[in-house]
Design goal:
The structure is a homodimer of 523-residue chains. With 523 residues, chain A is an alpha+beta fold. Helices cover 37% and strands 22% of the residues of chain A. The first copy, chain A, has 19 helices and 18 strands. In chain A, the strands form four sheets. A seven-stranded antiparallel sheet of chain A has the order 15-12-14-13-17-18-16, with helices on both faces. A five-stranded antiparallel sheet of chain A has the order 5-6-10-8-9.
């Protein structure tokens, strides 16, 4: 976790390992990427002059800290998608917001919204800045400010009897865990962005963590929340559960700043586990692996973390995780046990490991245990993906992820169709996928794509192809990355014209001047 | 399950047992209700003349079966709350809808809504007619029709891999189970109204069943649904789970007919259990019992059904369940084991009983098992409450229930405050309560109230007192009975003025002419 991520990269640059030595040969052989393709990021250009009027600035300064320096603006110019990084690496700062506003409390957030409505200034809530879907793109009205919530970073209340904790939105993932630890509690919401992302961002994007199979999605954890909107403040969530009309909390969760700003959220928390076990398995075939996951989940004996790589992801992981003699040996072992269709399965139990693992055993017949080493390898590298991406982009590789979810019946077809669409669009490429986030009725599919980088259009086209394939297959346009700007074109397919009309009606009620994150959610 | 319940009573009258012989003495001693207070229902008066215009009738007949006979209209004049029954028992049919419309399919529902919008006719969706909160009260514009969904009673699709089933809304609880049984599946959504209520009603009222601790609420079961509204049709739910903006399904679930008509719903289903065990326990003290439930739920080892009666409910159950020597013996045993603070705890496991019961054991230390007899007694009587109510009303007893939910921390205070409010309002009365529907963060409280019946005002006042106490204690106005007409006055407290504005904006978008169940949900 760092205060500010680099403009053109992820996290703490000192944690980058560089690509393993055998990666260069693999990239050359597989994608035709040679050392000549390496490309270093350009330094950022100075951002455009701020469009914020003197009056607006005075109004904002009266209620919150305001930064207008280049650095503050540049660092909130966008999120961390491949296209964001491509732009940033070109030194392009044209998307920088006109100022950065840092409110200290809920009242200040309300006052900022009032000032911005008065001056026709768009407001983009900014937590960790980890959006990979254009969710923090500053889209201006007369101007646009980034509303950075980092000063609102307190744990407000812990109810140890009811196992709930009330947070301000700017609390980062690791800080939430640190704040809860003295109570013997944890949140356990661990998306790959965990080290940078915030509680407010988790809620606003309706995110799911790597342990969602056991701990549930953020949707499932929200007990109560406060949403400050230009039209007033919504305080939602009474009692344990309610039947008092439609659950309005569900309108705030996933609202992506388009309806207002999450300023307080009460989440379900858990007692810290006394033990954990992460274990790798091999399964022969992606179908067989899915059947294992389905049996675990539908049988009520799923572990907290469950993740099944398809044969391509499995092969790449084996190749890149160990070069040399040891790597060759591992690959030979895998081939012998599970053939070319070998799929790596990672299962993780937190608490009551032995009893739960025993219950899971029947579903795991046919899966060959690789032991805890493979599990620990995944565990230790679980937040490293974005660092690896920086290294790959330096090497001249297009690298991006996308995700969806589908019913168990549809999972295979969606997998096939999305792979085909990406391959058709990109030509020579590697498409890897894993199943994770298990539900009784289905699961998510998470794709990682590698190709030789050409230009932005290359990925824009591939993303359209993949998204069209997802929607055509009846799957959802996003399982946990949210809508942002990037998925807006598919929201009509997702909820229909009438669903969009409902979302617009809600937005008009809560944000009549349209100042709230205008670039996101609604086409 | 019967086709039509009696106008002034519940279910199948042949299933009424009458009060046990020792009940009369208890009612006299406890409430001062004597045989002289017995009151037989009056026959229904003829309903008022239908206000439906000839034009409207022609339009409706063109698209659906329409009944205008007295019997059809009278039987849809309201739900089954104490006040509904009091009115019905007085022969009052003044609330009868002007006609009953029975659409055969989704297209017919849309056509009925269009015809009603054109003719300013209100539409009240009617499933089992079991609302206890005025949710099916026919409130007229120029006229009002009851939209009875019984002809839409098909199981449309079963996905045995993804464990989902797609139902039309008019399928009754027991029929849903009968339709699923050949697939080895069940739904397991078992509210007390189960034998009469429908899938559409479950969804529209956001209900919770007696096994919700294990199986979840209906909110948790809805994978996809179709809501036909005057503005068009919403088809919601793609993929297994989604982050594509706010979950619009949550607007349809609990919309109580105010936004449109649920015409299709895909629900999560389960494999039929191979075994089950219901068991009674005694706990000394309501606090101690709550601690047991909390440990079970927060420890992840809760059974599927969990229900803890407070000392008053326990005492009444023991008194009314067995008179004579056996009853006296049971009471003596209970007193000896748990004193006057004895609380009856019913736990029910469906599937993997031994393993799960073993895991639950540590949380149950301090609870004395009464064996499976007590569990079976509860199981066999689980749908009998409404029949008993008819018998009690015949005897001249006020009998009604109300419910809420609260965090574990607040549960005791809510219990105390609601009891006090009811007792203050009613004077001589019996207030019983049980905790059920466990969640990690809290549980529901379900109150049953008995007093000597005086008039409708007597309960109206008591309901206001109890509801004010619930809201003042921070609990929800309803955990699973929905809002209907009866809880409307507390919706402002529940979601605030801005929450109401959002609900109104949604309604105006989906139902611009305000024809959809105008009596419900919104103040």
């Amino acid at each position: 976790m760092v205060d500010d991520m680099p403009f053109a990269g992820w996290g703490d640059p000192s944690r980058r390992h560089g690509l393993p030595p055998h990666a260069a040969a693999w990239l050359s052989k597989t994608l035709g990427v040679t050392p000549a393709d390496a490309v270093a990021p350009a330094p950022p250009e100075p951002p455009p002059a701020s469009r914020l009027s003197a009056d607006a600035l005075v109004s904002l300064r009266a209620v919150a800290e305001v930064r207008t320096d280049d650095e503050a603006r540049i660092l909130r110019a966008g999120g961390k998608s491949y296209l964001d990084l491509l732009r940033a690496r070109a030194g392009d700062t044209s998307h920088a917001p006109d100022a950065v506003v840092l409110p200290a409390d809920e009242a200040a957030v309300a006052a900022v919204l009032a000032a911005c409505a008065e001056h026709r200034v768009a407001v983009v809530p900014f937590g960790g800045g980890t959006s990979v879907v254009g969710g923090v793109d500053p889209v201006a009205l007369d101007a646009v400010v980034s509303l950075d919530l980092r000063r609102m970073d307190a744990l407000l209340h812990v109810d140890e009897t009811s196992l709930t904790a009330t947070f301000q939105p700017g609390v980062r993932g690791p800080d939430a865990e640190t704040l809860l630890r003295p109570y013997g509690l944890h949140l356990g919401h661990l998306p790959q962005s965990f080290e940078q992302a915030t509680i407010g961002g988790f809620v606003a994007t309706r995110s799911a963590g790597q342990a969602s199979t056991g701990h549930g999605r953020i949707d499932d954890m929200v007990v109560a929340l406060t949403l400050v909107t230009p039209a007033g403040t919504l305080r939602l969530g009474r009692g344990a559960k309610s039947a008092a009309g439609p659950d309005l909390r569900a309108l705030a969760v996933g609202s992506e700043g388009a309806f207002g700003v999450v300023t307080e959220v009460t989440l379900r928390v858990r007692r810290l586990p006394s033990e954990s076990r992460y274990e790798g398995f091999l399964v022969r075939g992606f179908d067989a692996g899915q059947a294992v996951l389905r049996d675990l989940e539908q049988g009520g004996v799923a572990p907290d973390v469950a993740r099944l790589s398809d044969p391509d992801e499995t092969a790449v992981q084996l190749t890149l995780s160990g070069g040399g003699a040891k790597g060759a040996l591992t690959k030979a072992y895998v081939r012998a046990r599970a053939g070319r269709e070998a799929c790596l399965l990672i299962l993780g139990w937190e608490d009551r490991v032995a009893a739960r693992r025993a219950l899971a055993k029947p579903a795991l017949k046919g899966a060959v245990s690789l032991g805890q080493g493979a599990g620990r390898t995944w565990l230790h590298g679980r937040y490293d993906g974005p660092y690896l991406r920086d290294d790959l982009m330096d090497a001249g590789v297009l690298v991006e992820t996308l995700e969806t979810s589908a019913s168990w019946s549809d999972l295979d077809r969606v997998h096939t169709d999305v792979r085909a669409a990406l391959t058709r669009s990109l030509g020579r490429c590697v498409v890897m996928c894993h199943v994770s986030h298990l539900y009784p009725q289905g699961a998510s599919l998470y794709f990682t794509v590698l190709a030789k980088a050409v230009d932005a259009r290359q990925w824009e086209r591939a993303k359209v192809a993949a998204s069209d394939a997802i929607v055509a297959a009846g799957a959802t346009i996003t399982h946990h990355h949210a809508v942002g700007a990037d998925h807006r074109p598919w929201m009509q397919a997702e909820v229909g014209d009438l669903g969009l009309a409902v979302l617009r009606a809600i937005k008009e009620t809560l944000d009549p001047d349209g100042i709230c994150n205008p670039g996101t959610l609604l086409p």
